[in-house]
Design a protein that fits this description.
The protein is of the alpha+beta class and 93 residues long. It has four helices and four strands. Strands 2-3-1-4 form a four-stranded antiparallel beta sheet. Strand 2 and strand 3 form a beta hairpin. The longest helix is centred in the C-terminal third of the chain and has 13 residues.
Length: 93
């Protein structure tokens, strides 16, 4: 399984939804997991992004489909990056 970092920014519609129904975030998390992606960590942020999610997915295709599905709803925009552990990056000693 590969690790991904997904930064998300809510649209105006997304902010309205979260304000009116904050539990919607947990509902979306369940939908993401049903698509085959495990949420390892999730944080709300201050700054240009609203959330950072650390995700585990079987491959780039799966995470791309999740990003496309979420973005197509019009409530958020995503930026997704593959992440490597330090051991993967520098090699194990």
């Amino acid at each position: 399984m590969a690790i991904y970092v997904m930064l998300t920014t809510l649209t105006d519609e997304g902010r309205k939804t979260v304000k009116q129904k904050p539990q919607r975030i947990r509902e979306v998390n369940k939908e993401v997991e049903a698509m085959g992606v495990k949420i390892l960590a999730q944080y709300s942020l201050l700054g240009p992004y609203d959330f950072v999610n650390i995700l585990e997915a079987p491959d780039n295709i799966t995470i791309s489909k999740v990003a496309m599905e979420l973005g197509s709803r019009g409530t958020l925009q995503t930026m997704t990056m593959a992440a490597l552990t330090l051991d993967e990056f520098i090699g194990k000693p």
